[in-house]
Design goal:
It contains 3 helices and 11 strands; from the N terminus they run αβββαββββαββββ. The protein is globular and about 40 Å long. The protein is of the alpha+beta class and about 210 residues long. The chain folds into 2 domains: about 1-40; about 55-195, no CATH class. The chain is about 25% helix and about 20% strand. The model is unreliable at about 1-40 (pLDDT under 50).
Length: about 210
């Protein structure tokens, strides 16, 4: 009887050791799977870049480098080729400027080289304006959504560091300067013109 009891005890002990070994072997696999899952990160979806249509200035983005496809420093003929269909360039009276009017006449876009530069001189000004009713102009805008028709308060909210400066020729003209971007307004605190320029201030007249 004692021999049978001893055998039974040994069998139970062996079974217990086998169960522990099996349980211990499965744990690292489960833990490893959990760790691998924890280390995985979701793939960020890239934000699509805005599409710029050369013939539609309402798609143009205003930056310190230019406006839409027109960049400061571009040879003037190249900039002229990138202006919307219907752009005019009076080679007799205003050869240094190209200008385009919106079909509804609500706003304009200009690109200009220096008046005394060569025909292929670099672009020094790109601008958009509306003097009749800026509120209806649907033209170029900055990445912050500021364009002709925006209010002065909206410009200051978007660009707290904007510098206010009066025009030296026209005392009723005021600029809000952000780098090389000039937001222009007069008595009414609504932006009527936006110019990106390499000059200290925008030109008083486009073809003057």
């Amino acid at each position: 009887m004692r021999v049978r009891a001893s055998i039974a005890v040994l069998l139970l002990s062996a079974a217990a050791l086998t169960a522990c070994a099996t349980s211990g072997g499965s744990s690292p696999t489960t833990s490893g799977t959990a760790s691998a899952s924890a280390e995985q990160t979701p793939t960020d979806t890239p934000t699509p870049s805005p599409t710029i249509d050369s013939d539609d200035p309402s798609t143009w983005i205003i930056t310190e480098d230019g406006m839409g496809p027109i960049a400061l420093g571009d040879p003037f003929p190249e900039a002229l080729a990138l202006m919307p269909e219907g752009t005019r360039n009076d080679t007799t009276n205003c050869a240094w400027t190209a200008w385009w009017n919106a079909p509804d006449q609500s706003y304009q876009v200009f690109a200009a080289r220096a008046s005394d530069s060569a025909d292929d001189g670099p672009v020094i000004n790109v601008s958009t304006d509306s003097w009749s009713d800026p509120a209806v102009a649907d033209g170029p805008r900055t990445a912050e959504g500021i364009g002709v028709g925006s209010t002065v308060d909206e410009v200051r909210a978007a660009y707290p560091a904007a510098i206010e400066m009066p025009d030296s020729i026209g005392p009723d003209i005021v600029y809000l300067k952000v780098g090389r971007i000039f937001f222009t307004y007069r008595e009414t605190p609504v932006i009527t013109s936006i110019t990106v320029t390499t000059a200290d201030v925008p030109p008083y007249e486009v073809c003057g």
